[in-house]
Input
Amino acid sequence: MVTKRILILAPYPFNEAPSQRFRFEQYLNFLNENGISYDFKPFLSQKTWKSLYASGKTSQKSLGVFMSFLRRWLLIFQLRNYHFIFIHREAAHIGPPIFEWIIAKIWRKKIIYDFDDAIWLPNYSETNAKFHRLKAYWKVNYCMKWAYKVSAGNEYLAKYASKFNKNVKIIPTTIDSINHHNLDTNYDQERIVIGWTGTHTTMRYLDFIVPVIKELEQIYEFDFLIISNEAPAYHLNSLKFLKWTKESEIVDLAKISIGVMPLEKDIWAEGKCGFKGLQYMALGIPTLLSPVGVNNQIIEHEKNGYLVKNVNEWKEKLILLLENKNLRKQIGQAGKQTIREKYSVIANQLNYLELFS
Output
């Protein structure tokens, strides 16, 4: 029996963007099972989403964004029967918070505002750098202020949101350990794989540990695997590259024996939700993270992973894991248990349901 109806407004098409897949999309069946029906309305169409981050195609992008705005305007007149409006990041990909203002002030609907990065700070791809001012990053503060509740991905984000809204709930970006991240790394494979996954825009964080990898490959036999949307430019004998695909994502990740997530300590990194580390841990991969932001809460040092501060510590812990299979398994399985207990969909389902109360 349906007791509540929600409208979900998100930037991207369904099952395409990681922030949507792991923030709320994997909870939608659970909402249905608990009497909450939903309509999902992305701002960008599939076609526009595919073209937006490609080079050129300015006319196609402009037409696609125009049509996206037109669909949003038409949708604004159809909100009467919804109990909640769930907004992930923003109702429109660019521009001021016009739609959010109408929903909150004209329709007086209860907005659940969800975000998982320090999105009030400028962050953009070089492909669309000349258009980034249209993003109106300042609108995030108003979206929080007008919301009925705010769902933040970690304590740092929640603290910022609390400046604008007193009803803030921390819901971590979570792992579906039953239907998605449901493999284990092979602790017995002969050739060890040190691995990293991420987009080309965050690959720069690897610059810090590449000299360490170069030094270690003179002593040990291993592969340094990078899974990304673009090939890296590093010159390493151990380097292997796999192009990221949604279909092979988990199988490819499970090839990693030791997962790394180096970060620089800056405001943007403080707001990240540690998702790379969570993915490694969910597959039983022993994980090394920089002690930045939420990583300090995810990792209990030397029990379910390692927090490594400098080049010497990166080298020391990598050697430790390269030389000790039993330790890799021990740390990896402890990390997997952390995911089950704190960062899995199952562990957070009821917290998520409370957003709509």
